[in-house]
Every structure is written in structure tokens, then in C-alpha cells.
Amino acid sequence: MQAPSSIHDLKTLVLSFHPAIAVDTVEEERVEQLIDAVADELEMPVFVWSVTHGLIQKPTAHANRGTAEPIEVLQHLRTLSVEGIFVLQDFARHLDDAAVSRAFRDVARKFEQTHATLVVTGAGHAFPKEIESQVVHFDLELPDAEELERVVLAVLSSIRDRMDIEVELSKDERKQLIQALSGLTCNQARQSVARVVLEDGRLDAKDISRLQTEKARTLGRDGLLEYLPPDENPFELGGFHGLRGWLERARIGFSEQARSLGLEAPRGILMVGVQGCGKSLAAKSIAREWNQPLLKLDAGRLYDKYVGESERNLRKALSTAEALAPVVLWIDEIEKAFASVGSGDHDGGTSQRIFATILTWLQEKKEAVFVVATANDVFRLPPELMRKGRFDEIFFVDLPDETERAEIFRIHLIRRRQNPERFELPCLVAASHGMSGAEIEQAVIASLYSALHAKAALSTEGILRELQSTVPLSVSRREDLDRLRALARERFVPVR
């Protein structure tokens, strides 16, 4: 059974006499169930076409003769006057043919008069420009908790028909298990549950973390999103006292008390500043401290991987984030998503459309998705993004001070199994003036490689040599840093 909101939305489109509706999804079964539910409420017949069987009227399996080819089914539809729903599976790919495209437009115009509806289904489909204006896009939401629970019960019932299984889950553990499946399609959830049950014939609390790991693998397959469950997030935030204090207050916004007062959950923050100074670490540690999953969206990959489909995949990513709520969504190097905004239309307007999509979503999102956007080059960010209301606050991350540099050295020495007490930290701190945390880390790593090559123990002198041979960004790009600090003093809140 579909969510009532999905049924209502599709029903509204059909009643509004849209001649053609496109549903971009791999969940063909869910689409069919949704269309059947709408047709049942409206008492309309449903016809389904595919290139393998032609046009059939449900629930019969009898195909209309001479309708297997795309041009044939469109010619047949032009002769009909029935007010029904006609589902065309994987049809968009056939519209590159000029004759099919022309016939499709003729049918759409005919259906405007007969109040019939074409529903084009498929995954990753695109329409020619001459047809796009006649098509309204319907976004099939990811399954909610109730639908996922029905999936789990159906999987268990199916497996019990073949073998004995044990289910040991408390009420709270059931909720955690469903939350572990949120953000997946029904098919993905079905496969994940079946896999963990069939491995040992059980479904219990131990399977929750396994499902989270499976979800991380599933969401990461397209390269756009990375998922990190709370129990696999080891990152802790040191320093950044100004940011930590703000986050402590903001966290109250997720409480029942805040909701009872009509307060919305915090929207998110934008962190700008010097490269390599802890913005990424802060995003990871926020999710850890709030015990929420971390979902990372790499803005740069919108263009690298999804040429021509960037906006559609961005909407899919944002929809996934909402399905996972409450969640921390980290948009890394957000300025890369707007590489061409304001510089003409040489990318076909993709940057402008992505910009508009993100702005609208930031302003109107209802789910508890806390956005942490990071930017290395604030001067490439459109000014509209920094307007109040998009983010709750904008923080500036500067180079680490002496106390923070000492802590950075301790962290990276301990991480490489070195005792910080063996090193003259005051000398290292003084020699690393003007360096970022990333530059300090690299100096420790490089000096350790040198020590291994020389078959000697790592020493203060070895690290000092690496520090002295390093030209930090604060020197090589001093003018840019001065300009950034001048802007930060006027507009941004320091993290310290």
C-alpha cells in the first residue's frame, strides 16, 4: 500500500487533466501499485504498454494486436476516446525518433480533450525539448516507515515458507531497524533484509548495524552520496569553542519541548575559511556528538559524474537525505556546485538550475536535515547563498593558534604510535606558525617516512626539517588570506 500523500499528489495531477506525467524511478512495482490505487479511487481503467507485450488492459493479460512498436501504440491511442490511465514503460528512449516524437505530441494533444492520461515510467529518462513542455514530472518519494515495515514483514513471511527463522526484536529495536532501512527503495530494503536473515536464520538487534553497513554500501554505489552510521563515526572535535557552544544551543531545537513551542529544527551552518583547518572534521564530529548519521554530498561530483542529469540526481540526493532524517547532511566544497553561476550560460544553464534547486530546498525543507556546508573559496559563492534564512549561521575557520597546533601535533603523533612526551612540542609549535592542520599532519607523515628510510627513530629535529621545507598557504597565498580575513571580520562568526 502506498503512502496517502503519494496517492493524493498523483490523483491531483490526473484530475488536473495533465496529458502526460513522467515518473523517474527504478521501482516499477511501486509505480504500478500507486497508479492502481489512484485509478481505483477515480474509477478509471488502466492500460499498460511495454515493447515486449504491447498494450494490455489490466487486470487482463490480453494484448491489443499491432501495438508492440512505439509508433503503433501511439497511433492506436489516437483512435481512443476512453478516459483512462495509459502507462508507457521505458518509453522516453523511443522519443529520439522524430516520427515517434511527433506522434506522442499528437496523442498528448488528443488526451487534453478526452481527459485521459499518459504515464511514462523508467529510470534516468530524458525528454526532447519539444516534448518537455507537455510533460509534468512526478517525484516518487522513498518509502516511509510504515511502508518499510510492511516490506520487512513480507520478507519474513516469504522466508518462513521455506525455512525456520527466529525474530528477536524489542519495540525500540524494531524502530531502529526500520530507521536503518530509511533512504532505501523497497527493492533495496527487501534485498538487504533477506540477506541478513538468510545468513544465520535470525533477525535480531545485531542485524541493525549490518543493515546500516549495507545501506552505506548501497547509497555509495552512485558516487554522489556517502553514508556514515553514528557507530562508525570516530571523529571528535577539539577547539572550535565558539562553534561548539552554538551547536550545544542549537541541539535543543530537535527536542520535543522546542516542537511544542512551534520552533523549527535548526536548518544548518555554512563554514568558510582557510583550506585544511578543520571544516571537514567539524562536519563529521557534529554528526558524532549528536548521534546522527552523516550523509556526505560531494558537490563537485554533480558535474563530473552526471553530465546532463545533474538536477535530477541532486533532487534524488536531497530526497534521500529527507528520508533519512534526522540526519546531518554535509555538502563538501559547496562552491563547486555553482561553478558557472553568473558567468553566462555556457553549461546550458545547469549551474543556475542547481543553484535554484538548493536555495529553494534550504528555504523550504521540512524534515530534520541539518546541513553543514563547507567552502574553501568563499569568493566563488553566490551572495544569495549567504543571506540570512538559508543557514542559521556562517562560521569562519582561521589558522590554528599555538594551543591548537600543540594539540594537532599530539593527535597526529599518537595516531602514528609516537609518544608526544619524546618531542619538544614548544619548538614544533613555534616552527609551525602560519600552518594549517593539514600541513602539520603532512609534515609529521613526511618526517616519519624519512626516519623509516634512515632506519632511525622519529625525532624533533626530523619534524623541524620538514616544517622548515614547507611553504604554507598563508605565505604562498598571503593576499588571498588577508582578503578573506577582512571579509570574515565584517560578516562571519569565528569558530573559536
- The CATH class of the largest domain turns out to be Alpha Beta
Mean pLDDT: 88
Instruction: Specify the biggest β-sheet.
Output: 7 strands, mixed
The tally of helices reads 21
**Unreliable segments of 5+ consecutive residues:** none
Task: Evaluate the radius of gyration.
Answer: 28 Å
Number of strands: 15
Describe the protein in words.
This protein is an alpha/beta fold and 496 residues long. The protein has 4 domains: 4-138, P-loop containing nucleotide triphosphate hydrolases (Rossmann fold, 3-Layer(aba) Sandwich), CATH 3.40.50.300; 145-222, Helicase, Ruva Protein, domain 3; 232-397, 3-Layer(aba) Sandwich (Rossmann fold); 402-475, Helicase, Ruva Protein, domain 3, CATH 1.10.8. The chain is 48% helix and 14% strand. It has 21 helices and 15 strands. It has helices at 4-15, 28-42, 70-77, 98-114, 129-132, 145-160, 171-181, 186-200, 206-219, 241-250, 256-260, 279-289, 301-305, 310-324, 350-364, 402-415, 425-431, 437-453, 460-468, 473-476, 478-491; strands at residues 20-24, 46-50, 54-57, 85-89, 117-122, 135-138, 166-168, 202-204, 225-228, 268-273, 294-298, 327-332, 369-375, 393-397, 493-494. The chain has a 7-stranded mixed beta sheet, with helices on both faces. Strands 3-2-4-5-1-6 form a 6-stranded mixed beta sheet, with helices on both faces. A two-stranded parallel sheet has the order 7-8. Helix 7 (171-181) packs parallel to helix 9, helix 8 crosses helix 9 and helix 18 crosses helix 19 (460-468). The longest helix is centred in the N-terminal third of the chain and has 17 residues, at 98-114. The two termini are 51 Å apart.
